[in-house]
Write a structure and sequence with these properties.
This protein is of the alpha+beta class and 449 residues long. It folds into three domains: 59 residues; 89 residues, Pdz3 Domain (Roll), CATH 2.30.42.10; 242 residues, 2-enoyl-CoA Hydratase, Chain A, domain 1. It is 34% helix and 23% strand. It is built from eleven helices and 19 strands. It is globular. The relative contact order is 0.10.
C-alpha cells in the first residue's frame, strides 16, 4: 500500500514537472524548482512512513501516522494553527454557540507548558480559584509538558457531573496545587450589564459568540429603560475577553460607530484581503464611552478596542492587551475533521497591526498591585502573544508604547471584585472620567455665546 501511494505521488509530480515546460523558460525554471523540492520532501516522508510501519515496536496504522504528521506540520507554523480531528472540530463548533461540557478555562502553551490565560466567570475553574498564569502540570496522572493544546482541551472536556483531577503550579507558591473539579455544562453568557448609577451603564463582554451582538442590543435597550431615558455614559468592559468570532467583533463595534472602517485583514490571497465597515443605522453614538482592557483582552476584543480608539469614539483605559492580530480560518476536511489555519493579519482603521504588541490604552490604570495587596497573593506575569513560541512578528506601523510605571511591570490577575464600583480601581476611574466629561460638556454649553 505504501509503495502504491509512493508511485502515485511520483507519477503526479512528474506530470506537474512536465506540464511546467509548456510555459516560458523563466516560469518553468521557478516552478520546476519548487515542484522538485516538494517531490524530494514527499519522497522522504513516504520513506519514513514505510520504515516506521515496518520497524516500530507495535503495529501502527497509516491513519495514526498521517494524523500525527498533519498535527506536527501545523504545530510547526504558529501557536494558533492546528489540526482538528472530528471530535475537536465538533467541540469548536459548539464553543461558538457558547455551550460545552468542561471546566471553564482559557489555556495556551507557554514554554511547552500548558498555562491558564484566564478562567471563565461562573465556572468550576473560576470558583475553585484557578488564576491567570497558573501552569497546568498534570491532568489526572499524565504530565502535560509538550502535550498538544488540542489534546489537553480534549482531556479536560467531558460530560456534566464527571470529575477530573488537575495539578497546578503557581508563581510565588512553593507547593503544587491539587484540584479535583466536577465538569459542568459551561454556558457562557457573553453579555452582562447593569446600571452603575443613574445615567451610567456598564456592559461586560466575556466572549464574542454567535448571538453577542443581538444580546448587546437587548442590553442597551434594557439599560435605557432602567435609566428612564438615554444614558449619560457607558463603560464597555473587555477585560479577560479572549475573543471569538470576527464577524461579531465587527457588529459590536458597529453598534457604537456611525460610519467608516472598523477593521481590515490582509493575507497572501485576494479573498483574505477584506474590509469591514460601520453603518449609521442603529448606532449608539450619543454618549461618551470608556473601554476597559487588560492583558487578557485578545483578538476580537482588540479589534473592538482598536476601532473605537481610532475613531475617537471611546477612551481605552487599563493595561496593554494580549496582542493577537492574526485571523484563523477553519478549513473542513474529509471525515468531519478540519484544520485551523492562520491566513491573514488584521489591522485597525488607522493601519495599526497589533500582532505581538497589543493595544496601548489612552489611560494606563493598573489593578495588579492593589489586587495583590488586598488578597496577599503574588503578581503573575502577563501571558501575551509575544510570549508564545513561533508567534508572528509585528507587521505594519508600530504603535508607540505608553510609558510604564513601576506598578505596570507586573500584569493584572483576573479580579475577584472586577466590575464592582468601589472595589475595582479601573472601573472607578472610568466612571469618574465619564462624570467629568458630562460636567465639562455642561459647563461649555452654559458658557456658549
Amino acid at each position: 500500500m505504501i509503495n502504491r501511494k509512493r508511485n502515485v505521488l511520483t507519477v503526479v509530480l512528474v506530470c506537474v514537472l512536465t506540464v511546467t515546460f509548456w510555459f516560458g523558460d523563466r516560469w518553468v525554471g521557478r516552478v520546476s524548482a519548487v515542484a522538485k523540492e516538494t517531490y524530494e520532501n514527499i519522497e522522504v516522508f513516504t520513506n519514513v512512513l514505510a520504515i516506521v510501519q515496518k520497524n516500530y515496536v507495535d503495529p501502527v496504522t497509516t491513519k495514526q501516522l498521517i494524523d500525527g504528521a498533519i498535527t506536527g506540520m501545523l504545530n510547526a507554523l504558529d501557536p494558533h494553527s492546528a489540526y482538528l480531528p472530528p471530535e475537536m472540530y465538533k467541540e469548536l463548533q459548539v464553543d461558538t454557540r457558547g455551550s460545552f461540557g468542561g471546566l471553564g478555562i482559557e489555556i495556551t502553551t507557554r514554554n511547552n507548558v500548558l498555562t491558564v490565560v484566564s478562567p471563565i466567570e461562573d465556572t468550576p475553574a473560576y470558583r475553585s480559584g484557578v488564576k491567570s498564569g497558573d501552569q497546568i502540570i498534570k491532568i489526572e496522572d499524565e504530565f502535560t509538558k509538550d502535550m498538544p493544546l488540542v489534546e489537553a482541551v480534549k482531556k479536560m472536556r467531558g460530560p456534566k457531573g464527571t470529575k477530573i483531577h488537575i495539578t497546578l503550579r503557581r508563581e510565588g507558591i512553593p507547593n503544587l496545587i491539587e484540584l479535583t473539579l466536577t465538569r459542568e455544562v459551561i454556558k457562557i453568557q457573553s453579555v452582562k450589564f447593569r446600571l452603575l448609577e443613574k445615567g451610567y451603564g456598564y456592559l461586560r463582554l466575556t466572549q464574542f459568540q454567535e448571538r453577542t451582538d443581538d444580546d448587546l442590543q437587548k442590553a442597551l435597550v434594557s439599560l435605557e429603560k432602567e435609566n428612564g431615558g438615554p444614558l449619560g455614559g457607558l463603560v464597555l468592559d473587555l477585560r479577560n475577553n479572549p475573543g471569538g468570532l470576527l464577524t461579531q467583533a465587527v457588529k459590536v463595534a458597529d453598534e457604537f460607530i456611525d460610519s467608516g472602517l472598523v477593521v481590515y485583514t490582509d493575507g497572501r490571497l485576494e479573498n483574505q484581503k477584506q474590509k469591514y465597515f460601520a453603518h449609521k443605522a442603529g448606532s449608539h453614538s450619543d454618549f461618551p464611552m470608556i473601554v476597559l482592557v487588560n492583558g487578557g483582552s485578545a483578538s476580537a476584543s482588540e479589534i473592538v478596542a482598536g476601532a473605537l480608539q481610532d475613531h475617537k469614539r471611546a477612551l481605552v483605559l487599563g493595561t496593554q492587551t494580549f496582542g493577537k492580530g492574526s485571523v484563523q480560518t477553519i478549513l473542513p476536511l474529509e471525515e468531519n475533521a478540519a484544520i485551523r489555519l492562520t491566513t491573514a493579519r488584521y489591522y485597525t482603521p488607522n493601519g495599526r497591526s497589533i500582532q505581538a504588541t497589543g493595544i496601548t490604552p489612552d489611560i494606563v490604570v493598573d489593578n495588579s498591585v492593589i489586587q495583590a495587596k488586598a488578597e496577599g497573593g503574588p503578581n503573575f506575569p502577563a501571558i501575551r502573544e509575544e510570549n508564545l513560541p513561533r508567534h508572528f512578528q509585528h507587521k505594519g506601523k508600530p504603535q508607540e508604547s505608553a510609558p510604564k510605571s513601576d506598578e505596570e511591570e507586573s500584569e493584572e490577575v483576573p479580579l475577584l471584585r472586577e466590575g464592582e464600583v468601589g472595589k475595582d480601581p479601573q472601573l472607578d476611574r472610568a466612571l469618574e472620567l465619564l462624570k467629568s466629561w458630562n460636567v465639562f460638556k455642561t459647563v461649555v454649553a452654559q458658557n456658549a455665546p
